[in-house]
Amino acid sequence: MGIVVKKKSAFKGLLLPENKITAKKPIENLPVPEKVIMPLQQSIGAPCEFIVNRGDTVKAGQKIADSTSYVSAPIHASISGKVSKTIKVVNTVTSTIMDAVIIESDGEDRWVELKKLFDIKKSDDFSGLKKIVDSTGKKEILKKIREAGVVGLGGATFPTHVKLNPPPDKKIDTLILNGCECEPFITSDHRIMLEYGRQVLAGLYIISRTISPENIYIAIEDNKEDAIRCLEELIIKMGFSSIFKLVSLKSSYPMGAEKTLIKTITGRSVPVGGLPMDVGVIVNNVATSKSVYEAVIESRPLVDKVVTVTGAIENPKNLLARLGTTIGYLIGECGEVGSGANYIIIGGPMMGISIVDTDFPVTKGTNCILVKEGRVQIEQNCINCGRCVNICPMKLMPLVYARNVKRGNFEVCREYYIENCIECGSCAYVCPANIPIVGYIKTCKSTIAKNNG
Amino acid sequence: MEKDNILISHAPHIWRGFSTSKVMYIVVAALLFPTAAGIYFFGYSAIYIILASIITAVLTEFVIKKLRKKKFIMDGSAVITGLLLALILPPGMPLWMVVLGAFFSIAVVKEAFGGLGYNIFNPALAGRAFLSVCFPKEMTTWVLPPYFNYDAVTGATPLSESFVYTDKLSLYKDLFFGNIGGSLGETSAMLILIGAAVLFIFRIIDWKIPAFYIGTVALGSLLMGKDVLFQVLAGGLMIGAFFMATDYVTSPVTGNGRIIFGVGVGVLTVLIRNFSNMPEGVCFSILIMNAFTPLIDKYVKVKPFGFQKKKKNA
Q: What pTM value is reported for the model?
């Protein structure tokens, strides 16, 4: 049909073993768990404060925590039941302790009343949908997005209403919908594009109304041919072919990282220490787009998440899980864990975080749970081979970081622009000496952050 | 899944598995081509020298690791050092000298500096330099191939002034195939190039250092009015450019740094070949540039993604 444009990566990427074993498995609804753990910080920005008390009865979708600060997103109960107690949990991203609330299910799954403006599953009258969106003002849209607690679901969890409201001096001319999903194993975005394509595209249309960009791209890696074809058909059917451009990208890690994606699609380089909006671009993930649709048209808050449970497990699945469901419950739903598997990762194998405690909940940023056999990493001496320098998509010198962090020279790392590192893990993946370079980089970044206040 | 066994580690949780020892053994495999040439042209003495050198190198590393109370890893780097040293020694070298050279390479040049990754100089080249200072006579006695006919004759290497030849075309042919006097593994340009091809296929080395090294020598020889093809094929340039100057540890890490390194080695080689009293300059040129490597790596950096020049404040 010719609305798909093919592009090669504009950076030296990695070809990783994909292992997307759940790509053909439809999303299954995970049964409502007996309890959920809702941490108070599930996004970048200020933590929320409880607006419910212990012993209160809540319905699914009811707001339970909010914050007065702008860069923050409220949190909603994901099941109906009783607020039983507050506990402390470790934030896996920042490694800090945060408060969480436990809700015990009443087993009825009662919801707050949701006002649906349009039924996208049944109706094919998309002009009606467009009319609804066009008649909703930008402020109204952003307010609905905030109230629904929508954050960037690609992993960064940046509050979406803030992202879609850039400062007036930043002119945004390009909007990119990120459906790359370049990490091995993960298939949640892939399945969302296949099964919620309508919502994703409608969500993109809503997002585009808030920033009025000249170009709107939908970027998908070419290892998801079925998703590209599915969205292509839908774009035509929904009458978006004049405004949305579908781009099929050569699979290459880390294509889904904002900076490399923007470079590949627009040719622009986000400056060191800068944001995509500095080059006039906003990138949103497909799952975020779906949530934006649900927030604006169905007034449905973000209370569930498609999570891929995969790896060394009997029955890998894509599950639609309520936020706060424990990792252990998801794993249990997928059968026996492989005998040698002793490694649980939240996220993908390249950037995910390994955890000890399976009582940790699914949060807004969770997109994958990977169970695998651990590898014992024996760090050897750096031989100065330069593979890390050669592969780094941010054109940094990772070996310098490893060397200097070991000696405690954190300032040297700053001279080498360590803040530009996106922690994609390519350097450590190719390192012949098996040096945990990303570990050193994270140590360095957190030490610098601590020293600066 | 038992909680006690659960592993925690930093991302990434997968690894390409292309380890240091794999890199090293691919280099060893690539070196087998020039090694085969050495054995073919110089016979049993070549085999003895190679074995003596490798065994000494590995044993020395093993003993020193034990003395330093460090773990000995058979990563193949000592094998490379031993093999490389053998390949750049004269085929008639007494074995005890070979053993001494290999010991020096590992004990002094490599381990005394901290082992693999910390040495400043290429161990094999420094070992050769050590031997040529200690035993200048043996280090310049060249046996002419073929050796298997037992009529061992000695003669000059092509780069020395006393070397005479009659037919230019057959000289090039001899230089290319290796039927000429010289160090054990440096004579056959053809087999060195095959070995280099192996390194390129497995992406072990970057083209920049050999290309700029050989290119600079060619250009320099042209400017000096020398026979360019002869200068490129003769002596240790080929094995030096592909197997010595490209040593990771002792060469720069960035692309531009490698270009500077290659040009630097090339200029030094031309200078030594034309102005010093030594016929050959590859060994010392690379060693001198090894010393510059930390400096090059300090000042030649990669421009990061999205780098913008800071606007000058008025």
A: 0.91
Q: Which residue of B has its CA nearest to A439?
A: B10
Task: Select from B115, B117, B305 the Cβ nearest to the Cβ of A393.
Answer: B305
Asked if B66 and B170 sit in the same domain, the reply is yes
Verify that B182 and B144 share a domain, yes or no. Answer: yes
- Residue among B242, B231, B256 nearest B158 (CA): B231
Interchain proximity B12–A430, CB inside 8 Å: no
CA atoms lying within 13 Å on the CB side of residue A279? 22
Given A11, A341, A394, which is nearest B1 (Cβ)? A341
Following DSSP, what letter does each residue of B188-209 receive, concatenated? -HHHHHHHHHHHHHTT-S-SHH
Mutation choice for B interface testing from A20, A331, A342 by most B CBs within 10 A: A342
Q: Is residue B131 part of a domain?
A: yes
Q: Enter the tokens of residue A291.
A: 């949530």
Extents of the domains making up chain A: 4-23+114-298, 387-451
Which one of B9, B10, B13, B24 would you mutate to disrupt binding with A, by most A Cβ within 10 Å of its Cβ? B13
Range of the domain at B94: 19-156+166-204
State whether residue B225 sits within 8 Å of chain A by CB: no
Work out how many domains chain B is built from and give that number. Answer: 2
Find, in chain A, the residue whose alpha carbon is nearest to that of B17: A432
Q: Which H, E and C letters describe B252-271, residue by residue? A: CCCHHHHHHHHHHHHHHHHH
Report domain A4-23+114-298's class.
Answer: alpha beta
> Is B314 inside a domain boundary?
no
Q: How would you write the pLDDT of chain B (314 residues) with one tens digit per residue?
A: 555 677 788 889 999 989 999 999 999 999 999 999 999 988 888 999 999 999 999 999 999 999 999 888 888 999 999 999 999 999 889 999 999 999 999 999 999 999 999 999 999 999 999 999 999 988 888 777 764 444 555 666 777 766 766 677 888 888 888 888 888 888 899 999 999 999 999 999 999 999 999 999 999 999 999 889 999 998 899 999 999 999 999 999 999 999 999 999 999 999 999 998 877 889 999 999 999 999 999 999 999 998 877 654 44
| A27 SS3 class | strand
Residues A347, B11: C-beta atoms closer than 8 Å: yes
Residues B70 and B199 in one domain: yes
